[in-house]
Amino acid sequence: MAAPTWSWTLSASLIVTLTLTLVSVAYGNSEGDALYTLRKSLSDPDNVLQSWDPNLVNPCTWFHITCNQDNRVTRVDLGNSNLSGHLVHDLGKLEHLQYLELYKNNIQGSIPNELGNLRSLVSLDLYNNNISGTIPPSLGKLKSLVFLRLNNNRLTGPIPRELVGILSLKVLDVSNNDLCGTIPTSGPFEHIPLNSFENNPRLEGPELLGLASYDTNCS
Ligand SMILES: *[C@@H]1O[C@H](CO)[C@@H](O)[C@H](O)[C@H]1NC(C)=O
Ligand SMILES: *[C@@H]1O[C@H](CO)[C@@H](O)[C@H](O)[C@H]1NC(C)=O
Questions:
Q1: Can you tell me the distance from the alpha carbon of 205 to that of 203, in angstroms, rounded to the nearest whole number?
Q2: More exposed terminus of the chain, fewer Cβ within 10 Å: N or C?
């Protein structure tokens, strides 16, 4: 009589435990899934992403990842890592990310609009890559941003006016791209030195404003 009850209780509690574990793994690793999507989109000849195992509970033990006390990702440090390939829009899911460091690689393609969702971001360093397309106006939503370095890429189009609203911005560098239009002068741009804009043949400096004819081809 006792045996069937015992085994029923055992399997019921096993099912409950299993369900709870699956739910917590699925929830806990959504940031790991986003980063694993990035890994799959990159070519990594030096195997710097080898420890990025999506089966772990969270990505906090992966190399080049830093988490806070709640196991949420705060840093991605992959500068100078010989990576090529593309960025992914899933990066926009890392709500607590403060530092996205991907400088000095050979990343191609465009900057995902979704990076504008990274409300905690302090530093976006994508300089010295092979990034094309335009600077997303959504980056104007990054109200904690201090460092925005996009220099030495192949970016085109204007400097979005939305960036004028990032009052925390201290360091901006977009030199050595193919941007066009005029350089903003208000807000944080009052204190950005002109060499942060150099080597964009179609970008017109504020010192020329009175004379410059607007480049109608810049959009
Ligand atoms: C970068 O990767 C390439 C292969 O794609 C390799 O030939 C080269 O040695 C690597 N460079 C460094 C600095 O590791
Ligand atoms: C940069 O990307 C383009 C494609 O967008 C490619 O043709 C070119 O070879 C890349 N440059 C380098 C240095 O890899």
A1: 7
A2: N
